[in-house]
Specification:
This protein is of the alpha/beta class. The protein folds into 2 domains: about 130 residues, Leucine Dehydrogenase, chain A, domain 1 (Rossmann fold); about 150 residues, NAD(P)-binding Rossmann-like Domain (Rossmann fold, 3-Layer(aba) Sandwich), CATH 3.40.50.720.
């Protein structure tokens, strides 16, 4: 019997997960279909409940539901519970279990594709949503010296900083949330080694498609600028960062690595990452 997995989110026209996941299933000879499940907020509980059907193996979860799905699951993996966000749901017997593969995908791309060792470095993070939670915990675990969270809502930024500090306990890592109007923001940006955009600003087919979350004058030339947005390949932030003379890393490697980890949770088999990466790159050039 054909099995199904899908992508749960809202406004998913930018996504290429279906293309590279389906290519991986077919390469491995698995009778699995990856679908895109456009879901409104009101529909979310029923869509998640529908994963209990015998034909379903699980799902990926993306904007804006990575935090909202936690309360709809039977169990949340320790790592995802700690982060406070789920991007992968897998069925275990009759239970729905939530995982977070964004964190490992982010760090793998940062180290392997970005050639960047975060230990002892100063990082600035733009955003405080589900992706930002995974990225911030990953950076803390990787040993960054300091982490500054910039978010449109300072309250949400402070909430994330508070959660990180609770986890840190005796760690020496400095964590602070700042507003864009705070005088310390300019100092943090100019002195950072790594700048990560975890918002959807600049994403294809979004209301902010042609915008960058940061003005070119504020981009630190000595930093690695990492935009987790993968579509388009060169977001407005990446374009601006290159003009400013900074090194850049787009979100495609992170997307594929987190997707490969999801594939393995659903199938129990090693993911064909080379196939997934090749198909993902091709999907973005169409």
């Amino acid at each position: 019997m054909t099995k199904f997995v899908g992508l749960i989110g809202h406004k998913l026209s930018h996504s290429i997960s279906q293309q590279f996941q389906q290519a991986a299933f077919e390469h491995m000879g698995l009778d699995i279909r990856y679908e895109v499940w456009e879901t409104t907020k009101d529909e979310l509980p029923d869509v998640v409940e529908g994963l209990r059907d015998d034909s379903k193996l699980g799902a990926n979860v993306t904007i804006p539901y990575k935090e909202a799905v936690l309360s709809l699951l039977n169990k949340v993996d320790k790592g995802a519970r700690r982060i406070g966000a789920v991007n992968t749901i897998a069925k275990r017997d009759d239970k729905l279990v939530g995982y977070n593969t964004d964190a490992s995908g982010f760090i793998r791309a940062l180290e392997e594709d970005g050639g960047f060792d975060p230990r002892g470095k100063r990082a600035v993070l733009i955003g405080a949503g589900g992706a930002a939670r995974a990225v911030s915990f990953a950076l803390i675990d990787a040993g960054v010296r300091s982490l500054v969270i910039l978010n449109r809502s300072i309250e949400r930024g402070r909430e994330l900083a508070k959660d990180l500090k609770w986890e840190l306990k005796i760690s020496d890592t400095e964590v602070i949330a700042l507003s864009w109007k705070d005088g310390r923001t300019l100092t943090a940006l100019s002195g950072c080694d790594l700048l990560v955009n975890c918002t959807s600003v600049g994403m294809k087919n979004s209301a902010s498609e042609d915008k960058s979350p940061l003005n070119i004058a504020l981009i630190p030339k000595r930093a690695l600028v990492y935009d987790v947005v993968y579509n388009p390949v060169e977001t407005p932030l990446i374009v601006a960062a290159k003009k400013a003379g900074a090194r850049t890393l787009g979100g495609l490697p992170m997307l594929v690595y987190q997707g490969a980890a999801s594939f393995e949770l659903w199938t129990g088999k090693a993911a064909p990452i080379d196939i997934m990466m090749r198909v993902a790159k091709r999907a973005l050039t169409k």
